Amino acid sequence: MNTFGIRFRFTTFGESHGKAIGCVVDGVPAGLEVDEAFIQSELDRRKPGKTKFETARKEADKVEILSGVFEGKATGTPIAMVIFNTSQKSKDYSNIKDLFRPGHADFTYFHKYGIRDYRGGGRSSARETAARVAAGGLAKLMLRELGIEVNSGISEIDGIHATCYNYDYPAQSEIFALDPSVEEAQKNAILEAKKAHDSVGGVVRVVIRNVPVGLGQPLYYKLDALLADAMMGINAVKAVEIGDGCMSARSKGSQNNDQIRKDGFASNHAGGILGGISDGEEIVVNVYFKPTPSIFQKQHTITTQNEEVDFELKGRHDPCVAVRGSVVAESMAALVIADMLLLNMGSKIEGLKRYYS
Ligand SMILES: Cc1cc2nc3c(=O)[nH]c(=O)nc-3n(C[C@H](O)[C@H](O)[C@H](O)COP(=O)(O)O)c2cc1C
Q1: 170-218 pLDDT, tens per residue?
Q2: Domain 3-356 falls in which CATH fold?
Q3: Which of 150, 170, 202, 288 has the smallest number of Cβ neighbours within 10 A?
């Protein structure tokens, strides 16, 4: 499966060291203004090589729209977008051609397919996530017309937690930090790991505002289930929480229930979703990223011939994938909400009748 979504659906293609990556997005409502500069600005937030907290691989990540847009508006036909790869250094990967990096997908891809593009991890590389960000840009443009906002940022790096969440701050932070008071400590944790030829994990928080009550299918396409699916599908994501998440398993019902008042909920432990359906509060998703598997210390593994070897990696890698992962998580959240909006238009007869009014 290289496709995600039902009504607002996208398919991605391409590999880390191939010619290009890209996506085809189907279901974008006709007439939507497609602001290409906005889509490019989303890619610019994710692109590698901007700061010392990211991989040194420098990519322009210039997006080109190939189809589905006429005079600046979506025509209702598939929108194809392409991003050419410009900074491949395949030689860096020649020493892992016949061995499996611990923590990466080399072992499983080889055993599943019997053939593996070892250059930069091939299709298992997070380079593919640029295509998701391009698709997410289209979803965000649609949500923007409806007043729905999706924001994200880093809440935790190497166990250093945010104490507050300022969703305007990530735009001016080199690591997309949500809390300026812990940003420096979080940055230091990344740099120290990098100096030790190691890597660190982190947590991204995504918040979605102004979502109407009623998005989500009640049983097998619940809004929280789809968000979890979207987030777990991002490289290196190991856990997803909605609202209080794991903490709610450790609290009492009297603490966890959000009391209901005429003008809304008194708290939001539920993270904006009840019974798989949005309740009108902010939707809060915490996304847990593991540390980057490609580290520059000596490691032990096996070759494709099943021989044990020690090896040291070369190449350019992110010391903390959560940093650039935050934009990817935000894009996936936007794609889920766009899909759910289109899917839910027919959940009430009034929604259908609107077509005839
Ligand atoms: C934005 C982003 C950048 C990443 N960069 C790297 C990287 O530079 N080196 C690396 O080994 N893994 C990187 N990863 C993680 C790997 O792609 C991922 O760990 C690998 O595909 C194995 O999949 P899994 O961790 O989901 O099991 C990155 C992930 C994301 C989201």
Answers
A1: 999 999 999 999 999 999 999 999 999 999 999 999 999 999 999 998 8
A2: Chorismate synthase, AroC fold (3.60.150)
A3: 288
Identify which of 52, 53, 59, 104 to mutate to test ligand 1's pocket (most ligand atoms within 8 A of the CB).
104
Residues with CB under 6 A from ligand 1: 55, 104-105, 124-126, 129, 234-236, 290, 292-294, 317-318, 321, 324-325, 328
Mean per-residue pLDDT over the chain, rounded? 95
| Contact present, 95 and 314 (Cβ < 8 Å) | yes
Residue 233 and residue 255: Cα distance in Å, rounded?
A: 32
pLDDT digits (tens, 9 = 90+) for 316-335: 899 999 999 999 999 999 99
The SS3 assignment for 333 reads helix
CB 158 within 8 A of CB 53: no
Rounded Cα–Cα distance for residues 340 and 135 (Å): 15
Helix extents (H) in 127-179:
129-145
Structure tokens at 247: 């903490």
Atom in ligand 1 nearest the alpha carbon of residue 324: 1
Nearest ligand 1 atom to alpha carbon 289: 31
CB 141 within 8 A of CB 74: no
Helix (H) or strand (E) holding 150: strand 149-157
Nearest residue (by CA) to ligand 1, atom 9, is 317
Residue 126 Cα to ligand 1 midpoint, Å, equals: 5
At which residue do the structure tokens 């505002």 appear?
Answer: 209
Distance CA 297, CA 288 (A): 24
Q: How far apart are CA 86 and CA 94, in angstroms?
A: 19
For ligand 1, what atom is nearest to the CA of residue 318? 8
**Token pair of 13, please?**
């293609």
Q: What is the pTM of this model?
A: 0.96
